[in-house]
Amino acid sequence: MKNKILVAGGDLRQVFLAMSLSREYNTYIYGIDDEAYTENLKKDDGKDIYDAVILPIPVTNDGETLFTPFSEKKILLSEIAEKVKKGGIIFGGRFGSSEKMFKEKEIETIDYLSREELSVMNAVATAEGALGIAMEESPETIFGNKILITGFGRIAKTLAKILVSMGANVTVCARKKSDIAWAEIFGCKGSDFSLLDEKSDFKIIFNTVPTEIFTKERLSLLNPSAVIIDLASKPGGVDFSSASLMGIKTIWALSLPGKVAPVTSGEIIAKTIRNILTERGDMNV
Question: Do 236 and 212 touch, CB atoms closer than 8 A?
């Protein structure tokens, strides 16, 4: 007998995730009310109990209710907990404080964002989305453009590779000497963050550091026509108030995979969850 999975809340990634999993599992949706996308998916009837529940990215914005941009109904996380059978699993992306509540109810939680395969593939969607924003916002070509990337994690590495292949003049600021060396191997100029304390003429800046590195003082040293695309999670890496007062355009581009490539992103999450279930060996198809 096929296991029952509930996909609850979230954006279009969750819809395409449910479509993908429904090919193998007995899959239902809840808290996703847009019939244009969900007409071929089974809906939760309010009575079913599930072997696994898959929550969105993020799981919640307030610690109490499920993130449900496609539903006007407020769904309490405590209600979700009641839908999981004893010994079942709740998957989610960025549980925050809600994880404690589930664990108090003795429900196992798995944050699929912690999986390396998902992080790597999400970096591709984020980098492509960021590049699209840059091309829309800049009056110049990427080719030959002076571009700065701060940080050199998965997203920054992917972005650097794409930009260099397009002929951009890319500089990477990183803390680790090893990251600076890898940036240079990628065809970029490498520097530590002291570069931000000097006057610069970068036209496009991609930030991936989730702490405020672009302070008021550092913003004053930038080209006034520069565009900063902040890809970092909260609280971001820019003093947004000071940037606004200085007339420096900043775009805080959160959750790009779900916005620019929901089909691919949903399939990536589905594949990751399949990998987890296969490794555990406790779910039937």
Answer: yes
Residue 84 class from Cβ within 10 Å (0-12 exposed, 13-18 middle, 19+ buried)? buried
One fold for 4-114+261-280 and 122-254: yes
CA dist., res. 172 & res. 207, Å (int):
10
Structure token pair of residue 151 = 């940080």
Tell me: the pLDDT tens digits for 20-49?
Answer: 999 999 999 999 987 767 888 999 988 889
Average pLDDT over residues 245-273: 93
Helix axes 262-280, 116-137, angle to 10 degrees: 170
User: Where along the chain do its domains lie?
Assistant: 4-114+261-280, 122-254
Question: Does residue 256 carry a pLDDT above 50?
Answer: yes
Domain 4-114+261-280: top CATH class: alpha beta
Given this model, what pLDDT does residue 194 score?
97
DSSP 87: E
pLDDT at residue 45 in the model: 85
Alpha-helical (H) ranges within 50-169 are 77-81, 98-104, 116-137, 154-165
Strand 227-230 to 204-207 pairing: parallel
pTM: 0.83
**DSSP code at position 114:** G
Q: What pLDDT, on the 0 to 100 scale, is given for residue 137?
A: 94
Residue with tokens 């829309």: 136
The CATH number of the structural domain formed by 122-254 is 3.40.50.720
The one-letter amino acid code at 114 reads S
Average pLDDT rounded to a whole number, residues 269-285 = 83
